[in-house]
């Protein structure tokens, strides 16, 4: 036990074991005298049977002095080796049960020396968590004080039919799989004790030297000498010993071979799992040497970049990056390499074998050899191209949302101003209809109001991202492109050729495509804007190519030029409002408006560009359903409106109140006006009105609150909402607010009259 105890050492230089013990069964006659005396004391009536087997402690070695000798140990006494007595010692009972040494099966002489698979008959006893286990005795006195983590054991049977078991208490935690490795010691334990067991001298040794070893066997020597006794073994015993020794040697070799084969299978299985993982993941696994050259590339490199693994072996990551990243990423990576640090999330732009850009996210760890030298990196690349596009789209959406809030506020105020100018101009127009000079100047004012209204609409066009299908019709994108090419012909042909500049128009890529649903005016604006940008990028002339194709559920079209191209930082922000490369003549709204239009159509627009090569703008629009959500509403003709209506006008712009009061009074209505929601509520509580014309956004008390208050009146008047907001459909629901009609500022006075007439005509029908 001493040899076993000291044969294993942990990093702290100490044995991993707390205590190792060797138990053995024996006939009464084979027991030492002190044990027989103990049995007589326990059985004073003399009921013991001389042919009974007893289990006793043969050897012990441990941390404490009294654990190092059998006769100093408290648990060296013997007890009958039967199932009844084993049940009283749970640990030994469980150990013999798991090892496979049951007392009921051990009455005959062992024949296992003739069985090749002898060692497979016996298992391993293991309690992985000794602390708190009911199988391990003396928890408070032994297990916890001496930090016993696990207990394991193994054993076997001699040809004498006696059994043995080794129980080891470990301060290192062991799994059953770990404990299984100690089975390889079993043949050696048997070899050491076999000669003593066969000759019946196993107890006839110095009590303080239980680790008995036998002398060497020799074919020339008729006897075998034992160092402990220097006693000759008889030829009969020698034959038994040699036969069983030969078997144990064979078993030891077989177990070693099985272990090596098992390790080989485990390594093979581990290799297969790793290979399967590497080859089936969507990411690219790689290794580089100390010079950053690829030494391994998993098959996924083909899916990500179009290269076969063998094509990238020997090159560096920078060889397949874009020109911009070759410099910046190389510098960053060299700094990481010099520090031999792990890294993660390193973004880099790479050129696919077919030429398009792929964004990869790279992570890696240094490879350090056993001698501490740096050997390179092992890592993984993940394609994040689509993720970056989504992030950019989200950022763009947030920018447009912020711009939309600002633009909506401006348009509200601007529309209020335009409403006053337009309203009073219309009144003056009626008054001076026969005065041509004044009439013509009023027309100029009204035209300016119309132009101002269009400017407001254009300001908001790139911030709107919801589809409004009321103006959508089925469209053929190819025909739209043909129309715009013809429309822009004066610029790319007539004017340019007059200046000696030639543009080549290539329409070979325009294939027949499905229809889409859209607004033809808006989409022509997008195409024209892209063409103009391309022509601006080719001041000395060049090629302009058009392509159309179907792609799953989308109709796609692209416009490519051979112009100057853009740097990546410009391309990434191309859809930002007020970004322009045409200073000082460009406003920077063109591509923003295009982005807004395409988003309203439920599509996507993307730009690829390379400096010195050119730019391609690709647009994807959903294929139309059978019918677009387009409804043509016939104009309704109305008789002259009702008169003498009591009308309340509510608007925080006093000039709007004055305008509507004057106009509606001329129309024969009874009008009162207030410039705040608070005044309106006070007046509505004291007077009755047929219709309320109310602004939506007002300080303190809003139009929404005024309209909600109308529900409390005995007689609820009709409601017309007059607003300067361009996105009124998103601000309120007409049904929820019980609004009869909405008029957007700046409005035609005749339109307001028509809405009032319709509201009251509905009641008369």
Proportion of residues in extended strands: 15-25%
Poorly predicted regions: 107-119, 205-230, 583-588, 629-639, 727-731
Biggest β-sheet: count, sense, barrel? 6 strands, antiparallel
User: How many structural units, i.e. domains?
Assistant: 4
Secondary structure: number of strands: 23
Number of H- or I-type helical stretches? 24
Structural class of the secondary elements? alpha+beta
What name does the CATH topology of the largest domain carry? Beta-Lactamase
Protein name: histidine kinase
Modified residues (4-aspartylphosphate): 695
Keywords: ATP-binding, Kinase, Nucleotide-binding, Phosphoprotein, Transferase, Two-component regulatory system
Catalytic activity: ATP + protein L-histidine = ADP + protein N-phospho-L-histidine
Summarize the model shown.
This protein is of the alpha+beta class. Helices cover 40% and strands 20% of the residues. The strands form five sheets. It has a six-stranded antiparallel sheet with strand order 3-2-1-6-5-4. Strands 8-7-11-10-9 form a five-stranded antiparallel sheet, sandwiched between helices. Strands 13-15-16-18-17 form a five-stranded mixed sheet.
Could you characterize the architecture of this molecule?
The structure is a single chain. This protein is an alpha+beta fold. Helix 12 crosses helix 19 and helix 16 runs antiparallel to helix 18. The longest helix is centred in the middle third of the chain and has 47 residues. It is elongated.
